[in-house]
Amino acid sequence: MSKKDKWIQLTPSNKKTLNTKVKSIRSNLAVVVRDLRIAKGYSQEQLANIIGVDRKTINRIENEHFSPSLENLVKIFEVLEIKPHKVFVV
Predict the structure, then answer these.
(1) Does domain 15-86 have CATH number 3.40.50.720?
(2) How far apart are CA 75 and CA 82, in angstroms?
(3) Under 8 Å between Cβ of 82 and 51
(4) CA separation for the pair 22, 18 (Å, rounded)
(5) Measuring CA to CA, which residue among 51, 89, 42, 50 is closest to residue 73?
(6) CA angle 52-75-84, nearest 5°?
(7) pLDDT digits (tens, 9 = 90+) for 35-64
(8) Helix, strand, coil % in the chain, rounded to nearest 5
(9) What is the dihedral of CA 61, 66, 67, 68, to 10 degrees?
(10) The pLDDT of residue 90
């Protein structure tokens, strides 16, 4: 088995670490989206309409209950002028 194959295998230990990192990114995303949406004067409804999703989707992102698709994430980043490094910090 190559080193690359070993890296891909999930063990209970690295799976827990991965889950922790995902939760951290989801939390960062929630805070950044909420803070910048408010700073730019958008309601959840307005932001949702701009990017083409339901208001509940924005609410769920801001409350860490949902991770947006890559397409919607890019739209959110563009509308709110979010720099990816502000979110993807673990």
Answers:
(1) no
(2) 10
(3) no
(4) 6
(5) 51
(6) 150
(7) 999 999 999 999 999 999 999 999 999 999
(8) 70, 0, 30
(9) -70
(10) 64
